[in-house]
Design brief:
Blueprint: H1 2-16, H2 25-45, H3 49-77, E1 88-95, E2 100-101, E3 105-116, E4 124-130, E5 141-149, H4 162-168, E6 174-178, E7 187-190, H5 196-215, H6 221-229, H7 237-246, H8 256-275, H9 278-283, H10 286-304, H11 309-326, H12 333-347, H13 355-371, H14 381-398, H15 400-407, E8 409-411, H16 414-440, H17 450-472, E9 478-480, H18 488-499, H19 510-519, E10 530-535, E11 544-548, E12 551-555, E13 560-562, E14 565-566, H20 567-579, E15 586-589, H21 594-597, H22 600-606, E16 612-614, E17 628-630, E18 636-639, E19 642-648, H23 651-655, E20 666-671, E21 674-678, H24 684-694, E22 702-704, H25 716-722, E23 726-729, H26 742-750, E24 754-757, H27 758-761, E25 764-769, E26 775-778, H28 779-782, H29 791-794, H30 805-809, H31 835-847
Parallel strand pairs: 4-6, 12-15, 15-16, 16-17, 21-22, 22-23, 23-24
Antiparallel strand pairs: 1-3, 1-5, 2-3, 3-4, 5-6, 5-7, 8-9, 10-11, 10-25, 11-12, 13-14, 18-19, 19-20, 20-21, 25-26
């Protein structure tokens, strides 16, 4: 019963994280206090046993729900007010994380100790410092002038939730360091402060520096660093694609398997050494010493890894077993697993949001369930091999439902890849990497011993990567599936349990049938008499997906965020996978600017693109291997039922060698009796030429505002020619260009158009039907959770630097769908991969100052 009670507590906490708004404190306190009382009264009244157990489980779930809700209220209370966004604030605090090194700066977590001025600043911040003259290190105390904003990330179906990640790490504001003037100059106040957490990160930072020096220029040096420190930032994007495709991503980080292995080795060594001395055995039994040593080794490795969810889960499981051994208690495996999950949730209620939480506990549960009847297997090499094979197949089968639900893909080569990779990485590469990490911290000449050790570890992993590349190269290696409805998960889990039942269980093949609804769920597609238009939230960039029937057209591919990340890999490909879209029939890249073409290469690597239409040079490196055609006015493309016509640029524009925004490929798409106009970054001069020669052809019910609503575009002539009912503006939250411009928004509204913005509404989708029964949704409202930033619902202005100009501009009102109300000028400047890496990509996109101007 106790394991079920603990599991109900975890389930209650998980249910709280699905709420769009938090219940009031009074409701949560009433649940926290009242639920156990009701359960106790029910127990005293002694109803039948089944009802009594159900009452206890409901009470445990209610306690978990209330506990997580009260903690969430405390954390959300430490918030940056909308009115304080974009203002310069002087703060003093401590570098409280392992800094991330960016292309032109560094990013780190900052624990605020003092604020100059009457402004409430959250206790912990995520800060970027671009063009820094000095390098920050953990445990240093600094004084900075910072410009902050509330947590705000891209909001797309099937995408990474940056705001949830920031909440879990208690980072309640993000921003960047200002150092342009003397009075803003950063100052280091102390080289080292004696605080436990930052000092641990200081040691990790030193170890990372030394390992990077020894592994400089190696192909998989980032993997070895990830195995030692949990810092995955140096792993290349193409490597993550390979690891995901072959199902071994869990091995190229600090996994529970690695921690358990290290703890076990230390425990065995401690026991063997202790048994060699009778005097020591007289002081304490060898079993007690082994349990203590293993637990301490696990704790040290987990701290070295940065104390992530997999590390926490493994440590608490091992600690529970160790404490049971020390107290001579015989705990059932199910109780150990449930206790570990409950402790992790108790310490971090948001841990249940991490896919790794469910995958980690799911894998262990599958092992325990499948091997429960096989503990007495023949203890020979053959019996051990059979048991290990069965365990691998059990874990792979058990995780299929969660993998489909969380990542919308299944690796068919995962069992084979893991059968080779698990022993190599866990028993050879990881110990060698840890040994190398230990040696690099020693003084010379002992540190030189790390060179051959790390070289051997790298060579072994490189051989493994070659094998993975061969296995993952088959077209059927990984299967993409659309996101299934929630009710298919309980069916699939029941099917897995039936499949993994002990030998002799009747008709075990029936379990496979229960998996079919999830695996065969059809992808949702528009009919022939409707067209779906989705403006993805890619920040300061453009990406619009148009679908009708079986045809898929993508207009622009979003921005490039850094050398390792772009909207194609981080946002567009995950969305297509979530939708079950396996290919793009036509990709239109309007022009070369990186906020429109940044994701081209990633998408061409990720899925088939049958045809590319662009004004870019067809020989551009990003287009290698694609079927490329020039975007020229007059060209017509029929993808039944979609009719596509190019309106700009003219052949003469290529001859004149126009460049940049002037070469934006403008297209009109017609389907289901509706017209969609997509305009790229077309400037005012080219707009006038387009209106003069195309006229009525520009009429559209739905249109994209040229250049994100820039003041140098959307002339009155074009706006009147469009006559659009709805106008899309894809822009970054609090972007430094001031997009969309106040006068532009007013112009569209005066013409009868509704301006809808991705920065306020997230991904925007129209489902247009020939009978007029249209649907519209904004993901920031439709997929809302209680932690999501809601500038629209707040009805407050985007503050633009805290200057007096704000009052003159007036307040900005949005409705909850991201529809623009009273305009104001925005002036403030500022994605299957691991969560940390996706968060870095989004944060870098949001805050790195970009060269150029409007």
């Amino acid at each position: 019963m106790l394991p079920l009670v603990l599991a109900a507590f975890v389930a209650g906490s998980a249910l709280l994280q699905q709420q769009a708004a938090l219940p009031s404190s009074a409701v949560l306190v009433a649940l926290l206090v009242g639920a156990p009382c009701v359960a106790w009264l029910g127990w005293r009244w002694r109803p039948n046993g089944r009802a009594r157990r159900a009452l206890v489980l409901l009470a445990a779930g209610a306690v978990g729900f209330a506990y997580a809700g009260l903690w969430a209220q405390v954390r959300l209370a430490d918030a940056l007010a909308f009115a304080h966004e974009g203002k310069d604030v002087r703060v003093v605090g401590v570098i409280a994380s392992l800094p991330a090194h960016l292309e032109r700066g560094q990013r780190f977590e900052f624990e605020v100790e003092q604020v100059h001025g009457e402004v409430h600043i959250p206790r912990r911040l995520s800060l970027a410092w671009y063009g820094a003259d000095e390098r920050v290190r953990p445990a240093e105390r600094w004084e900075f002038t910072v410009r902050l904003r509330r947590p705000h990330g891209a909001m797309n179906p099937g995408g990474f939730d940056l705001e949830a990640w920031l909440l879990e790490r208690d980072l309640r504001a993000t921003g960047y360091v200002r150092d342009g003037q003397l009075d803003m100059a950063p100052r280091r106040l102390a080289e080292r402060v004696w605080q436990a957490g930052p000092l641990v990160d200081r040691s990790r930072d030193t170890l990372r520096d030394r390992m990077q020096a020894h592994l400089a220029g190696t192909r998989y040096g980032g993997v070895l660093i990830a195995l030692v420190l949990g810092d995955q930032r140096a792993i290349a994007e193409e490597d993550w694609l390979l690891f995901n495709r072959t199902g071994i991503s869990h091995l190229v980080s600090i996994s529970g398997l690695h921690i358990t292995m290290i703890a076990g080795l230390i425990a065995l060594a401690a026991s063997a050494l202790w048994r060699r001395s009778r005097r020591l055995l007289a002081l304490a039994p060898a079993q007690t010493v082994a349990a203590t040593a293993g637990m301490l080794a696990a704790l040290a490795y987990c701290l070295l890894a940065g104390w992530g969810v997999p590390a926490q889960r493994t440590f608490f499981m091992l600690a529970t077993v160790a404490l049971a051994l020390l107290s001579r208690l015989a705990l059932r495996p199910s109780l150990t697993l449930a206790a570990a999950a409950a402790v992790v949730t108790l310490l971090d209620p948001w841990a249940v949001l991490a896919p790794g939480f469910w995958l980690s506990f799911g894998a262990v549960a599958a092992i325990l369930f499948s091997l429960a009847s096989r503990l007495r297997a023949e203890q020979t090499w053959r019996g051990t091999l059979v048991q290990a094979t069965h365990m691998q197949l059990a874990v792979t089968t058990a995780l299929v439902p969660l993998t489909v639900l969380l990542f919308q893909q299944v690796s068919l080569v995962s069992p084979l890849a893991n059968a080779v990779a698990i022993p190599l990485v866990s028993l050879v590469v990881t110990p060698l990497a840890l040994l190398g990490g230990f040696l690099v911290m020693l003084p010379e000449p002992l540190a030189a011993l790390a060179v051959p050790v790390l070289a051997i570890a790298h060579w072994i992993f490189a051989l493994l990567a070659q094998g993975l590349a061969w296995v993952g190269g088959f077209g059927w290696a990984s299967v993409a599936l659309p996101a299934p409805p929630w009710w298919t998960l309980p069916l699939a889990l029941a099917g897995v349990a039936w499949l993994l039942a002990p030998p002799g269980w009747p008709a075990r093949w029936v379990g496979a049938l229960w998996l079919l609804p999830m695996l065969l769920w059809p992808a949702q597609r528009p009919g022939l008499n409707e067209v779906w238009v989705t403006a993805l939230d890619v920040g300061q960039g453009a990406a619009v997906l148009v679908e009708s029937g079986d045809q898929v057209v993508l207009y622009d591919t979003g921005p490039r965020y850094s050398a390792q990340s772009d909207a194609g890999g981080r946002i567009i490909a995950p969305y297509l996978r979530w939708r079950g879209i396996g290919a793009i029939d036509l990709m239109i890249v309007s022009h070369l600017d990186s906020d429109h073409s940044g994701g081209v290469a990633s998408l061409l690597r990720s899925l088939p693109v049958r045809r590319v239409l662009t004004s870019m040079d067809p020989t551009h490196p990003a287009l290698v291997g694609a079927s490329v055609e020039r975007c020229v006015a007059g060209l017509q493309v029929r993808l039944s039922p979609l009719q596509i016509e190019v309106l700009h640029p003219l052949p003469a524009d290529y001859a004149r060698k126009l460049g940049g925004n002037a070469m934006s490929c403008v297209v009109v798409i017609e389907a289901a009796g509706r017209r969609l106009l997509l305009t790229g970054d077309l400037p005012a001069r080219q707009e006038a030429e387009l209106v003069a020669r195309s006229g009525a052809a520009l009429r559209a019910s739905l249109a994209m505002a040229p250049h994100h609503g820039s003041r140098n575009s959307s002339t009155d002539a074009l706006v009147q020619a469009m006559g659009a009912d709805a106008v899309i503006v894809q822009a970054g939250y609090r972007n430094r260009f001031g997009h969309p411009d106040a006068s532009v928004v007013a112009r569209y509204e005066a013409a009868g158009g509704r301006v809808l913005r991705t920065d306020a509404g997230g991904a925007l989708q129209w489902r247009l039907r020939i009978d007029g029964r249209d649907e519209f949704s904004a993901w920031r409202k439709h997929g809302r959770r209680y932690w999501h930033n809601q500038p629209a619902a707040a009805g407050l202005a985007h503050i633009n630097d805290g200057s007096a100009a704000d009052a003159a501009n007036g307040a900005t009102g949005y409705d909850a769908s991201g529809v623009r109300g009273s305009p104001t000028r925005l002036r403030d400047g500022a994605t299957h991969a691991p969560a940390d890496e996706q968060a870095e990509a989004q944060l870098e996109r949001q805050f790195e100052p970009k060269p150029g101007s409007d």
